Amino acid sequence: MKIDSDVGRFRQIVRGKVRDELKRFMSRGEMLARKGKKTVSIPLPRIETPHFVHSPGGQERPGQGEGEVGDTLGRAGEPGDGSGKAGNAPGQHVLEVEMTLEELAELLGEEFGLPRIEARGKKSISSSHARYTGIARSGPESLRHFKRTFRQALKRQIATGTYNPDRPFIIPVREDRRYRSFQQVPEPHANAVIFYIMDVSGSMGDEQKEIVRVASFWIDTWLSSQYRGLETVYIIHDAEAREVDRDTFFRTRESGGTVISSAYNSCLKIMEERFPSTDWNLYLFQFSDGDNWSQGDTDKCVALLKDRLLPELNLFAYGQVESPYGSGQFLHDIEGPFGDDERVVLSVIEGKAGIPDAIREFLSTGR
Question: What angle in degrees, to the nearest 10, is found between the helix axes of 355-363 and 206-224?
Answer without folding.
Answer: 40
